[in-house]
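[Meeting: bench + compute handoff]

Bench side (C.D.) handed over the final construct sequence. Compute side (W.E.) agreed to return the predicted structure before the next meeting so the bench team could plan truncations. Sequence as handed over:
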Amino acid sequence: MRRLYRKKALSLVKELDAFPKLSDSYVETSASGGTVSLIAFSAMAILAVLEFFVYRDTWMKYEYEVDKDFSSKLKINVDVTVAMKCQHVGADILDLAETMITSNGLQYEPVIFDLSPQQRLWHRTLLLIQDKLREEHALQEVLYKSVLKGAPTALPPREDAPEEPLSSCRIHGHMYVNKVAGNLHITVGKPIHHPQGHAHIAAFVSHDSYNFSHRIDHLSFGEEIPGIINPLDGTEKITFNNNQMFQYFITVVPTKLNTHKITADTHQFSVTERERAINHAAGSHGVSGIFIKYDTSSLMVTVSEQHMPLWQFLVRLCGIVGGIFSTTGMVHGFIGFCFELVCCRFKLGVYRPREVEQLQDHIKDHETPLLADDVPQE
């Protein structure tokens, strides 16, 4: 009984076969057909390999939503070198709510402002990458894909022992602030807080020692991700004026980064720069120093790395194979039709009259070869 059911099922499957089967005796091969088949198979192989590389590649998907997290703190990572002694400068943050954030998380390290040859090479490379990022924004996606935990992105240490006096100050570290607009300023004197606001004690600092030439080795918001280059990284400003104000206006956008290598909550930002000399006699009022004014955006960006699904790759692969097979068949048939049409029009090939063929055969049969004895001798 089972064998009977199995035979019925096999016969039913055979009846469902919709693909035509032709005997070898009904198939006519030709040189043109073989050439077209070779070209078609080669094109299939090349396009299939290229499609596989497309399948392996990934792309970044950007999604936007409202940032509903207002209670958490915003982390600011700072690494700035100022061409003044550490006892003469101070850094702090004052936000929109008149809340003063002390610089307890910042360290003041005496250094030399001029870079060593290895550090200068690193700085030039960083500036070159920054220029390319401004021209080709798609390079940012390459950085998102290639981030590695623990990859060095900060200024490398000096390879030689300093011989010059340590006349500059490196201010580096991080601070946690409220997610409101604020102002990170580095100016003369140490900051102090009092009920009426805050101030910087600069009474014992000589005016001739003012020099706010600076280099921003790193400035980022949120979780610090090695491998990501921020817009102000590598910025260097040199001034010969004692009373110089540098202003950076920053708009911070919360960003969630989800790639195959890392998942982190970070922040992107855009920046506008401005600098001017302080001259009260000419009407240019203000305080000399470095002022980084930031404001957070209400939108949040989610950047995720996407990959082509396997089923979509198989569908595209079947489309390539079937499309090339059908197209080359139609092209081969059209060329054959045109060739037959031309031969029929000019009586060529199989379309030549039978009398002409018989006459040519008769002439060929009655031709006698020229022997060596028949050649006239000189």
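W.E. noted at the follow-up: Helices lie at 2-15, 31-56, 117-135, 139-145, 310-345, 354-365. C.D. will use this when planning the next construct.
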